[in-house]
Amino acid sequence: MTNDMLMGLFPVVFMLHEFEEIIMLKPWLAKNGPAMKRRFPAVAAKVLPLYGSLSTSAFTVAVVEEFLILTALTYAAIAFGLHDLWAGLLAAFLFHLLVHIGQTILWRGYCPFIITSLLALPYCLYALFALARSGAISPGPTATWSIAATVLVYLNLWLALGLARRFEAWAGRAFAPVADDGSPPT
């Protein structure tokens, strides 16, 4: 498999991971929110209002925004030979997966991201080692891009969740039930 092919798989791996979150996050939070409040009150105070208030479709809007950016950057990296930039993005994703693994260990049970985190981990490690072995990436530039990408990914998360909240508000207005006479319900 060429480096370009390996790099091109990244958006697919990302989406497989996100599908688990899209499908499982809302029901998991509904079931485990009270336990999270008891066991990790500081975390629950941040996570539950942020994610628990979003519908699955609104959360998906955030994922789509991230996917489009990741896909554009991946294919730009392939087209222009920006392997260190791409490796930095992959390292940021790898860090994200490691955080999920840590969260699951702390929770001591299933979390709605662990299965695909464990499945994506070997791809991330293999891709980084394959690019390094081929000489396509260097430790210094990759480390710099990794730090920059991690910061930008987490800053973008706030933008993506802001878009999701705006979508939620718009959908609430656009698809609000109407009375038989066409007026909004009271």
Molecular structure report:
This protein is mostly helical. The chain has one domain. Helix content is 83%, strand content 0%. The chain is globular and about 65 Å long. It starts with a helix and ends in a 12-residue tail after the last helix. Pfam families: HXXEE (PF13787). This is HXXEE domain-containing protein. It comes from Ciceribacter thiooxidans.
Percentage beta strand: under 5%
Shape: globular
Overall pLDDT metric: 95
Residue share in helix: over 70%
| Largest beta-sheet details | none
Oligomer: single chain
Number of helices: 7
Structure class: mainly alpha
The string of secondary-structure elements, in order, is HHHHHHH
Number of domains: 1
Give the CA-CA distance, first to last residue: 61 Å
- Secondary structure tally: strands: 0
Q: Which residues form runs of ≥5 with pLDDT under 50? A: none
Rg, rounded, reads: 19 Å
Keywords: Membrane, Transmembrane, Transmembrane helix
Pfam families: HXXEE
Protein name: HXXEE domain-containing protein
Transmembrane segments: 50-69, 75-98, 110-131, 143-164
